[in-house]
Design a protein that fits this description.
With about 450 residues, the chain is of the alpha+beta class. Helices cover about 30% and strands about 25% of the residues. It has eleven helices and 19 strands. The strands form three sheets. Strands 1, 2, 3, 9, 10, 11, 12, 18 and 19 form a nine-stranded mixed sheet that branches. An eight-stranded mixed sheet has the order 6-7-5-14-15-16-13-17. Strands 4-8 form a two-stranded antiparallel ribbon. The protein is globular, with a radius of gyration of 21 Å. Bound molecules: flavin-adenine dinucleotide. The site of flavin-adenine dinucleotide has 42 residues, from α2, β13, β17 and α9.
Length: about 450
């Protein structure tokens, strides 16, 4: 697609349009991954007027990878990466740190209906992981990168049935996996809670905040990062787009919007983003005595067999990490009662799995935004004259963000690739039902599915 060849499904070009931003990301908790990073030194916030060939708005997985690729491809161009908050403390740095090769959706009963779609997704996710690995090695990023795969873990008959469906789906696309019985699960995790596991090898576990900050710190001499610089207004124009923050403005020839659901604030897909939060907690590092009490391997990562079950990790620094609960987050903001509810749920999951040590509780509990589209669509492509977008994580964003970010940069530089072709063909976010229906629908269905997941939680 040429620069002016805008897909019909995407909004029309945007010359001379002023958009005031009304909603901003804001968090009431800090990501445990970010909080436990040693020596964080934040980039300055934007002050005064600067010019650049490219401005990338949003420093999550989509944004840091887009900025990295643009800076690589256009060594002579000035590149600016702007984020409203601190990179690594955003949704991307709040995630569980699974860079997945295979979407979790093969466990869905209707997986077979979109076999090619799932193969394509696996292929581009692997390319995303490869790009992350290349950055890791090139810049020596310390982020506890571990290519140990993920284990889908079941506790109930229902969970075990989910794993069987999942295995059948993997057979259909020729993906290798391994079954773990209860004893093997106990050997790995140090808990007798799990009855069955299905291990797939291609996923990488990492410390997300460390990886994100590592990429952002190594964008090269032609790139500048600004943190704590929320964009308050954007004036789409020619030859410059003007991006305003409270104390500065960027005049940029090209804009890449990589701000997840907040892209709707920038004049695109205004009624598509469904704001959902999910929550995580992390213990302090376990003591030698606590480790001896539970046993198990040094690091591992479990994905629940049932999608509303609990994700659990043991991290490289010997912490236990627990994630569950999805909830509607009005305006992409969570509340203290929602956070407290999640923490109670995490403690219950901890008690069930590790009763010997669960009294230690958690050092950090936090929530993070998922931007979902009703039809699972994502933003990828040219949105207007020198305006590009890659957004809408739909629940997973690490490897996906890496490939979306890399590919949107390549597309914006006029390149073509298999990944670009796949991403261009994906559905765009559809318009969501009116807020009252969506919010009630999400609240009802998340509570019902949590209840149905039972002991998998
Ligand atoms: C608890 C939890 C666990 C998860 N686990 C996983 C996992 O293991 N694996 C996985 O693949 N995914 C996981 N996810 C999902 C993953 O975190 C998201 O898919 C990912 O963060 C999306 O990346 P992103 O770059 O699109 O968005 P974000 O990380 O949301 O980045 C968007 C950025 O845009 C910035 N922004 C928005 N508005 C403005 C503005 N006005 N001005 C300037 N900047 C702005 C924000 O500050 C933000 O930094 C998890 C999410 C959560 C919350």
């Amino acid at each position: 697609m040429g620069l002016h060849d805008v897909k019909k499904t995407e909004p029309s070009p945007t010359t001379q349009r002023v958009v005031k931003i009304e909603k901003f990301p804001s968090e009431i908790s800090m990501s445990g991954w970010f909080a436990t990073l040693p020596n964080v030194s934040l980039a300055p916030s934007l002050k005064g007027r600067v010019e650049a060939d490219w401005v990338i708005i949003g420093g999550g997985w989509f944004g840091v990878n887009a900025a990295r690729r643009i800076a690589e491809l256009r060594g002579q161009d000035g590149v600016i990466l702007l984020d409203a908050g601190a990179i690594g403390n955003n949704a991307a740095g709040r995630c569980a740190g699974y860079a997945i090769d295979l979407a979790h959706n093969p466990r869905n009963a209707n997986f077979a209906e979109d076999e090619q779609g799932n193969i394509d997704e696996r292929d581009i996710n692997v390319e995303g992981i490869n790009y992350l690995r290349d950055g890791l090695q090139r810049y020596n990023i310390q982020c506890d990168w571990s290519e140990e795969g993920k284990t889908h873990a079941a506790v109930t008959d229902r969970g075990e049935a989910c794993l069987t469906t999942f295995a059948q789906a993997l057979d259909r696309i020729g993906v290798k996996y391994e079954w773990y019985n209860q004893a093997q699960m106990r050997e790995m995790v140090g808990s007798k809670y799990y009855t069955l596991g299905l291990h797939t090898p291609g996923t990488v576990l990492l410390q997300p905040a460390a990886m994100l900050r590592g990429i952002a710190a190594n964008l090269g001499n032609n790139a500048t990062v600004y943190e704590n610089s929320p964009v308050v207004e954007i004036r789409y124009g020619s030859p410059w787009h003007v991006v305003r923050t409270a104390n500065g403005e960027v005049h940029a020839r090209n804009v890449i919007l990589a701000n997840n659901g907040f892209i709707s604030q920038f004049g695109f897909y205004e009624h598509s983003a469904i704001p959902v939060y999910t929550y995580a907690s992390m213990t302090r590092p376990l003591t030698v005595a606590e480790i001896a009490k539970i046993g198990g391997r040094n690091t591992w990562g479990l994905i629940p067999a049932e999608s509303f079950g609990t994700t659990v990790r043991r991290t490289a620094d010997n912490r236990l990490f627990i994630r569950n609960i999805y909830d509607y987050a009005d305006g992409f903001h969570t509340t203290q009662p929602q956070l407290e509810r999640a923490k109670r749920s995490h403690q219950k999951s901890f008690d069930r799995r590790f009763p010997e040590i669960s009294h230690i509780g958690f050092e950090h509990t936090w929530g993070g935004a998922l931007s979902l589209a009703q039809n699972g669509g994502t933003v990828f492509g040219q949105l207007g004259d020198r305006v590009f977008g890659a957004a809408f994580c739909n629940g997973t964003g690490v490897s996906k963000g890496a490939i979306f970010g890399k590919s949107i940069a390549e597309l914006a530089c006029g390149q073509d690739s298999k990944a670009i072709r796949i991403l261009k063909n994906k559905a765009r976010p559809s318009r969501a039902y009116p807020k009252i229906i969506t919010s009630l629908g999400v609240k009802w269905s998340t509570r019902y599915r949590l209840w149905k997941a039972g002991l998998e939680v």
